[in-house]
Amino acid sequence: MTRLTFLGTKGEIEEFTERHMYHSSLLVESGTFKIVVDYGKLRKYGLDELCPDAVLITHAHPDHYAWLYEDLAAEMPVYLTQESLECGKFRPGRAITIEPGVEFRLGPLQVLPYRVLHSTRCPAVGYKIGTEGKSFVYNPDLVDILDKDSILPGTDLYIGDGSSIKANLVRRHAGTVIGHARIATQLNWCRRSGVSRVIFTHLGKETISLEARFVEDHPEVVLAYDGLQVDM
Ligand SMILES: [Zn+2]
Ligand SMILES: [Zn+2]
Q1: N- to C-terminal Cα separation, the chain
Q2: Could you read off the pLDDT of 20-69 as tens digits, one per residue?
Q3: How far is the CA of 165 from the centre of ligand 2 (A)?
Q4: Residue 46, number of CB atoms within 10 A of its CB
Q5: Helix (H) or strand (E) holding 170
């Protein structure tokens, strides 16, 4: 069994509630093997408390990547793209660079980083993580997945960007799109790809303010909160 714990569930916003105090971060445990995906500025636990076997970074925004501004000591390897590594003022002691589309193995986990559109200055990836015949995708910040049709079909759980329900947070910049896709847009991708289990993390201002109402209207969708645990 693989257990997912949402250590933090908010985006890079000032607003917070008791349910959303910390920046989006996910702990993945498979047996005794543990990884943390994203480790930003506002976090509940130190890496020395979590003791993951590895850390994976989606991109170098401050709510996802502590080393952007902090000289943080870490014993474990930190996997990230070369672009993310170059964005940081500091770098993890054991940085391991990865490339979108190039799969790798971490203990019992099969990990596929894939390109998502989100920022031109800090390009982002999502991760498809599989183990024991099940898989989930984690893309907390995105406007779009470049290769949706090869990433989403067959995925058991979609964990997406909860920045906005209806507000338009998509901008055009340097010939591409940046920002955050609406929850409704991502639900359409999942429907089309046959992914029925959906959780949103990285909640933004609009989502946090309309949370109770949204959950009532969409019982099929889970909005993650700090400390939520789900099993695969
Ligand atoms: Zn973010
Ligand atoms: Zn971001």
Answers
A1: 6
A2: 999 999 999 999 999 999 999 999 999 999 999 999 999 999 999 999 99
A3: 17
A4: 12
A5: strand 169-173
